[in-house]
Write a structure and sequence with these properties.
Strand order of the largest sheet: 3-6-8-9-10-11
InterPro entries: Nuclease_put_TT1808, Restrct_endonuc-II-like, Uma2
Distance between the termini: 43 Å
Helix content: 10-25%
Protein name: Uma2 family endonuclease
Pfam family, one: Uma2
GO molecular function: endonuclease activity
Order of helices and strands: HEEHEEEEEEHEEEEE
Structural class: alpha+beta
Shape: globular
Radius of gyration: 16 Å
Number of helices: 3
Oligomer: single chain
Strand content: 35-45%
Organism: Lentzea miocenica
């Protein structure tokens, strides 16, 4: 546990030494701790369902999809995305960004700016191949904006809308096809 009482210049070592905070997500943004509250049920449901879809697609290639794992992005950056596809099986609290094939963020009211602007820029700068942003409050249900790395920025490749089933590349040659509406509608 870190006992430092400064406002900034925290490092990955400081971040990884924090005790877990029930009901809170603590990320490291430019050397500052950023704390967000517990996610709404529909947010968690969408993350869990999407992780299952992605994990089923990638596991035979030795990859896995996990929720809420720390990603070591840089000395002063550590994120906890909603879903991460890793290039190998993960047994640690956090994973190095070099072992990340896809990051998925589900936008919440408190994370709009970060999920739409800051995280994609930081993740593209360090070479994460793909970034998906899920907007849960679309008129007809969830909308997923899928981006692939193009140089050092992300380019939109497909937008998944409720009712559509368009294949989208996850990693390498692995793609998935699913209806975004399935991420939050009742299953019974």
């Amino acid at each position: 546990m870190t006992t430092a009482r400064r406002l900034e210049s925290y490092t990955l070592k400081d971040w990884e030494s924090l005790d877990p905070q029930p009901g809170r997500r603590v990320e490291l943004h430019q050397g500052r701790f950023v704390v967000t509250g517990v996610r709404a049920v529909k947010h968690q449901r969408a993350a869990d369902r999407l992780a299952t879809i992605l994990d089923d697609a990638v596991f035979s290639d030795g990859m896995e999809a996990v929720t809420a794992v720390g990603v070591r992005v840089g000395e002063h950056f550590g994120y906890i995305p909603d879903v991460v596809v890793t290039t190998e099986f993960v047994e640690t609290v956090s994973v190095d960004v070099a072992n990340v094939a896809l990051v998925v963020e589900i936008v919440s009211p408190s994370t709009k700016k970060s999920d739409r602007l800051e995280k994609p820029a930081a993740l593209a700068a360090v070479g994460v191949p793909a970034y998906w942003r899920v907007e849960l409050d679309g008129a007809d249900g969830p909308v997923i904006y899928c981006h692939r790395l193009n140089g050092d920025v992300y380019s939109a490749v497909v937008t998944l809308t409720p009712g559509s089933q368009v294949p989208v590349l996850v990693a390498g040659t692995i793609s998935v096809t699913f209806d975004p509406a399935d991420l939050h509608k009742p299953r019974r």
